[in-house]
Amino acid sequence: MAATAGPADGNWFGFTTGQIVQEFGYDDDVDSDLRAAIEATTGAELAYEDHEDVVDGTIIWWRADDAEAGDLTDLLVDAMGNLDDGGLIWVLTPKPGRPGHVTPADVAEAADTAGLQATSAVSAGANWAGFRLLARGRGR
Fold it and tell me: Any residues with CB less than 8 A from the CB of 136 and at least 6 apart, and which?
């Protein structure tokens, strides 16, 4: 996975105006500036976990204490259920040294088991790292 940095405007997630992005794992520790940047980019609030319509992208806040690694796989499969063909999934985890840190290998393993591949990693704010996932064969 290549590490890249991106501007705070939210475009570097690959989302565009008019898209619907579903959010999983929201809690009081999420990066509110990052959420606001995505909402400003798309022009819409993030959709809740129970959103049942098709979405253009997904962000998942995942921490080590959220559950077992297999549970991340299950969540990725669930997230793909609403995802439009070609949509992006981003898994956001606490950076190394922060409470709840998840290793990139754990994210990659869960992605692989779910039929996804990790294509890049970014520093997503002061406390979060982001991993971009795509379905295998969708080289975007």
Answer: 115, 116, 117
Tokens describing residue 23: 């959010």
CATH of the domain at 130: 3.40.50.150
Per-residue pLDDT of the chain (140 residues; tens, 9 = 90+): 444 444 455 667 889 999 999 999 999 999 999 999 999 999 999 999 999 999 999 999 999 988 765 699 999 999 999 998 888 899 999 999 999 999 999 999 999 999 999 888 888 888 999 999 997 654 44
The region, left, alpha or beta by phi > 0 then psi within -120 to 50, assigned to residue 26 is beta
Does residue 5 belong to any structural domain of this protein? no
Cα dihedral 64, 110, 32, 54 sign: negative
Nearest alpha carbon to residue 84 among 39, 119, 135: 135
User: How much is the pTM?
Assistant: 0.88
